[in-house]
Specification:
Layout lengths: L1 H15 L6 H11 L2 H12 L5 H8 L3 H31 L2
Amino acid sequence: MKGLVGAYFVEANWFNTKYVPTFEEYLSISVMSSGYPMLAVQSLVGIGKIATKEAFDWVLNVPKIVKSCALIARLVDDIQTHKHCFTFCYLMFSST
């Protein structure tokens, strides 16, 4: 939870200061702000008694598999958002 809120805070600071991060900076923060690492923890909670303390400790350290899934999810979301916004803006301004 702290990682998610911290990532949101960094992105809010970027927005408020009009800072454009490098692609590497963006990727390092977007992994956490995607919410996917939090989802991985919540899915263990849903499993119930099968999930052990070791499993929680493992997923809380955000292993490579969780980071990779979060990165893929974030990039797919960004691509879809860009496509939607581009289409919307094109349709909105091309009719004038």
